[in-house]
Amino acid sequence: MKKKISKALSILLPILLGVFLTIYAYNSFTPEQLEEIKSYFRNADYTYILIALVFGFISHAARAYRWRFMLEHMGYHSPFKNNFMAVWIAYFMNMTIPRSGEVSRALVLKKYEDIPFDKAFGSIIAERVVDFIILLLFIATAVLLQFDVLKTFLLHTIPAEKLLVYGIVAFVIFLSAILLFIYSKSKWILMIKGKISGLTEGLLSVWRMEKKWSFLFYTAIIWLGYVLTFYTAIFALDETSGISFGVVVTAFVIGSLAISFSNGGFGVFPALISKILALYGISEEAGTAFGWIIWTSQTVQIIILGGLSFLLLPILNRKK
């Protein structure tokens, strides 16, 4: 019973959060501001959004192709078409149940290629470890590029004295967590250690694979595609077309985190993007419209291609 409640909450809470943020944002705008947001939608140059979608498509195709290197390393082969459709189904599923996409990808290969679920799922986890490290590098880059802006924002938001106290408290908590992690015998800590051990093993498996450089090359293509997707979209609105690449990286990181920790970023992505862009002088109306334009276009692409993949998988894999 507890597991069912926990599973239901894991599905409902992100959706409810997205609904709440959407309604809250809508009610916080005056009728004049809402009309201004609508004008941004009407006047946007959607040619750039279409180009952004092409970059997104390329990055997802590269993800599907990269998967073959992990599978071949384990002695399995799956045709590109099935990998490609499995990836789109995964993105589609993540919009309904957070993190269910990884499971659905593995299930697709189990059903159509008879690849053991644990092997396919393990290859996906190994991929995610690499992608997580890349995301951490982007976060570090964003902090370095925008350190002055972030420092000024924090100092204006939180007095220096309180910021110092918070910093000391955070350091003490961090040090305590490290000591607890090293010496504690708690089953929860042991479980976390097991998870970290599994992630380390996944990362090492990438390094040991025969075609690791091909794997890393396609990893670079994936993330370059992600960044270009976001960067190209800024030219759709005059108000965002002048932001620097450093701002793009910062907004991209925030957007990626919003998507990772919610149902595809519903409600959360536009709200966070508007807040980040506001730090750089972009009006809340323009930032909100920009966030919703990107999120909507990407979501429509996922729904269409994910839905088509559901339909085409059994047809293209029909046994003669």
Automatic annotation (TrEMBL):
It is a multi-pass membrane protein. It comes from the Bacteria. Pfam families: LPG_synthase_TM. This is Flippase-like domain-containing protein. The keyword Lyase does not apply. GO terms for cellular component: plasma membrane. The chain crosses the membrane at residues 7-26, 46-65, 129-147, 163-183, 215-236, 242-259, 289-316. The keyword tRNA-binding does not apply. PANTHER family: UPF0104 MEMBRANE PROTEIN MJ1595. It is found in: Cell membrane. Keywords: Cell membrane, Membrane, Transmembrane, Transmembrane helix.
